[in-house]
Amino acid sequence: MKILDIPQSGKRGLYVSQGGRYGQISRALVIPSNPRTASQMSVRAILTRVTARWRSLEESQRAAWTAAASGVSSVSRLGQSGPLTGQQLFNKINCTLALFGQTQVDAPPARPQFPVLGPQNLVIANEADVITLKLTCPTDPGQTTIVRGSKAVSQGFGKFTDFRVLGACPAPVQGSADITSLYTARYGVPPVGTKVFVSVNQVVNGWEDRPVTFAAVVPASA
Fold first, then answer.
1. Shared-domain flag, residues 213 and 127
2. Residues 6+ positions from 208 with CB-CB distance below 8 Å
3. Paired residues of 77 in beta bridges
């Protein structure tokens, strides 16, 4: 239910407050289902291993992470953010490395200078009922560009924030990177008339740059 109140977020008794598309929302507290999907369990296992790794560090190593984290702010919530703890930064870096099959680290890596993002747009085509999804890439995205996607939604959506990792951006051919197989392996073929959102960013040494979101409507067969 939409309410008029001061900005708030989180649980309060039997109710939960959160920001919605059209303002502040208050709803009854509901315990979410736990589907235990393979991807969900994989992420949980990674976090368990990374947390155990933190406990095995030397005190001087933990101090180095704490010092590095003092210059890294959390994601803003209700207009507020603050520096991460050493363990939060350690978990953030090492969970990202593990998720993409890279070697974890015990010392905080320096923040990189990210190159210009390769993908610049999402193009969806439908030729004789064969739907393809491609990212326009004037430059090579390299091996560090990660593609996340959303389920197909109504084309009335102006934005979407619920993304899942699809994989590394493929090498472009004639200026386009074909992500059809990455997308359909996760969500299936998007229906004609729906909108697909794709989020793309770069991962270097466990650090991620700000994601860029593209969207396109699935056209009728040409």
1. yes
2. 96, 146, 201, 202
3. 80
